[in-house]
Amino acid sequence: MDELTKQVLRSFAVWQKDVLDLHELFEVGGNDSEARTAVFDTVERLVSEGLLAEEGNDFYSLTEKGKEAASAE
Fold first, then answer.
1. Which residue of 16, 29, 39, 58 has the smallest Cβ count within 10 Å?
2. What confidence tier does 41 reach under pLDDT thresholds 50, 70, 90?
3. 44/60 Cα distance (integer angstroms)
4. Are the beta carbons of 50 and 67 closer than 8 angstroms?
């Protein structure tokens, strides 16, 4: 698992929330627009892989599979 994916998945523990909005997840990329694009692409990939669930209005939560991946390593 690449570092960006780990950071996105672990953001829920960092923020101590079950649901995060996309802007909170963008914090992984800092202020760099290319890094934020990479975060967006990672979030979309994690949704398609079943690790994140879309909650509507740019909010996301970890699925059980995502929770397992976030706690691994």
1. 16
2. very high
3. 10
4. no
Query: What is the Cα–Cα distance from 64 to 3, expressed in whole angstroms?
Result: 20
| Local structure of 55: helix, strand or coil | strand
Q: Specify burial of residue 51 (Cβ count, 10 A radius: 0-12, 13-18, 19+).
A: buried
- Answer whether residue 43 shows pLDDT above 70: yes
Number of Cβ within 10 Å of residue 66's Cβ equals 21
Strand pairing report for 59-62 and 52-56: antiparallel
Average pLDDT, the chain: 95
- Mean pLDDT of the region 13-17: 95
